[in-house]
Design brief:
31% of the residues are buried. About 11% of the residues have low confidence. An eight-stranded antiparallel beta barrel has the order 3-4-5-7-8-10-11-12. Strands 1-2 form a two-stranded antiparallel ribbon. Helix content is 19%, strand content 47%. By secondary structure, the protein is α+β, with helices and mostly antiparallel strands. A hairpin with a 3-residue loop joins strand 4 and strand 5.
Amino acid sequence: MDTFKIEENNINLSLKFSQPDKQLTQILDALNYFRGALKIACLLIFIFVAAQGQAQFDGSFRPVRHEYQDTVWIVTGKKELGNLFQKQKLDFVLDARQTLISTTTTRLGGLRIGIEYRRVHRFGIGIYGLSKGVHLNSLVDLDPKISEAVLNLSYASLFYERVLFFNRKWEWSATVHLGKGQITGDYRTSADTIWRSFPTRDVKPFELSTTGYYHLTWWCSIGTGIGYRFMRETPDEVRHIYNAPVAIARVRIKLGRLVKSIWDENAKKEY
């Protein structure tokens, strides 16, 4: 069985590139991996915008007001949704993370797109990755012979976010992610040796987090939060390297509201 360990006597290495070539290959592989997810995201945007436009006009290009009344639960009790609320909206978030890989702090870039339903339920897909990998001067946790290593993590995920509190300026939510992706890496045992490649491994990250948002404008919110990433179905010898707390920074762009505001000024009054 393959393991995520170095083979000191293995001369027939699959890696015959320099490290820059390897990093370029990893970036290209990540782009190919996420291509399908991006196609789905673009399709969701197109369908949502088309449905919004069709729903708002009656054939003579006159806006049609749909009265929507509902009640949802938040931590302060039941909250009524008046006729300014829309039952479903497009949810687009720039979703970055500060996290640990081994003992090194790094930034995990990401974005997510989905649907907001009844104001408090959000679900969709997220795409996350380390653009340049994490450079480590040693990797004692894995093998004390390693003097230098570059580790990488990229994955796509399904997410569900539950809004627990909201008003015109503030919002608090909890989120769960179920991901699928890959971990890769390169290493060398001294400055004089060539770079060798760790085996690529499929992983399934699981993340729990909580986030607070502040509504800057009617179309943009910023948020910050904390969470923890658990690496499911990951080789035992590296699971503890990628299991780590995360600090979250988010920017929510309310694309659906921006589109709706073209024909409906009341969209700016929703929160």
